[in-house]
Every structure is written in structure tokens, then in C-alpha cells.
Design goal:
Number of domains: 2
CATH class of the largest domain: Alpha Beta
Number of strands: 8
Distance between the termini: 53 Å
Number of helices: 5
CATH topology of the largest domain: 2,3-Dihydroxybiphenyl 1,2-Dioxygenase, domain 1
CATH architecture of the largest domain: Roll
Shape: elongated
């Protein structure tokens, strides 16, 4: 068997195309793919979107208008590695707009999809072999909503 790229299917209640276009407006490396619409065969209204394919930073998604039976929760989230505070601020503002800010860099967007907006250096801080540095960085992170790199760096350094 050959390894093939996986596609993440996101179940929406009639807002798949809207959500795809929203994500395309936020992520620079994003593109819209195929959009399939209902025909006379149904079960949805003729011409309405069944699925929409899109790609963000090389990750393939399909948005499915499946109805109200299922909703998103924090058990699945998408982590955005951010190089600096400007990136953290940008993604936090864009994705939390109309959604819900959460703790430790987590948020839910206006569609209920969970995201982690994480500075890449935080991973090294909390995984540092020095348990005191790692503990200080972790404790600082646990007090935050949106992550603040300067504050994390100070905590990590023991300042």
C-alpha cells in the first residue's frame, strides 16, 4: 500500500462554503478546490452545496453540509505554529472573531472549530530538559488566553 495524504472532513450545518471562504481569507497559503452541489437526486435543495474542498498550508479539507446532527468540540483542534507575536496576534484576532476565546492559546472560531495558536518556541520551552524552566513556562501559559511570547520568555528565564 502506498501512503496517501489524508483529507480532514469537517461537518457543517449548511455553512461549509462560507467557512471554506472564511479560512481562505485568513491563511495566505490556501486555495479552493471542487464544490459539489445537490442535484434533483437530493436530499438537499437543488443547487445548494453538498461539499467544498479546500486546502490550507498543504492540509486538505472537505467541508460537508451534513446538517445539525453533529457539532465540533475541543477533542479535535488544529494547531497553528507561529513564528512571532505578530502571527499569534493575527491568527488569534481573525479566528476568534465571532467565536470564543479559550485558555492556553486555544479558541473556537465562529463555526465551532477549535484552533491552537501557538508560538513555535513555546514547544521548546515547555519541553526543556531543565524542569524549572519548563515548569515556569508552563505555569505562565496556563494563565493566558492568547499567548504572549514576551511574558512566556520572561517566565522561562525566571525573570
Amino acid at each position: 500500500m502506498t501512503g496517501k495524504a489524508l483529507t480532514t472532513c469537517l461537518w457543517f450545518d449548511g455553512r461549509a462554503e462560507e467557512a471554506a471562504n472564511h479560512y481562505l481569507s485568513i491563511f495566505e497559503d490556501a486555495r479552493l478546490g471542487r464544490v459539489d452541489r445537490y442535484t434533483e437526486a437530493g436530499p438537499g435543495p437543488v443547487g445548494s452545496v453538498v461539499t467544498v474542498e479546500f486546502e490550507i498550508n498543504g492540509q486538505k479539507f472537505v467541508g460537508l453540509n451534513g446538517g445539525p446532527e453533529f457539532t465540533f468540540n475541543e477533542a479535535v483542534s488544529f494547531q497553528i505554529p507561529c513564528a512571532d507575536q505578530d502571527e499569534v496576534d493575527y491568527y488569534w484576532a481573525k479566528l476568534s472573531e465571532g467565536g470564543q476565546e479559550g485558555p492556553c492559546g486555544w479558541l473556537k472560531d465562529k463555526y465551532g472549530v477549535s484552533w491552537q495558536v501557538v508560538p513555535t518556541e513555546l514547544i521548546d520551552m515547555v519541553g526543556d530538559p531543565d524542569p524549572k524552566k519548563a515548569a515556569r513556562a508552563t505555569a505562565a501559559m496556563l494563565k493566558m488566553g492568547k499567548l504572549d511570547i514576551a511574558t512566556l520568555r520572561k517566565a522561562y528565564a525566571g525573570e
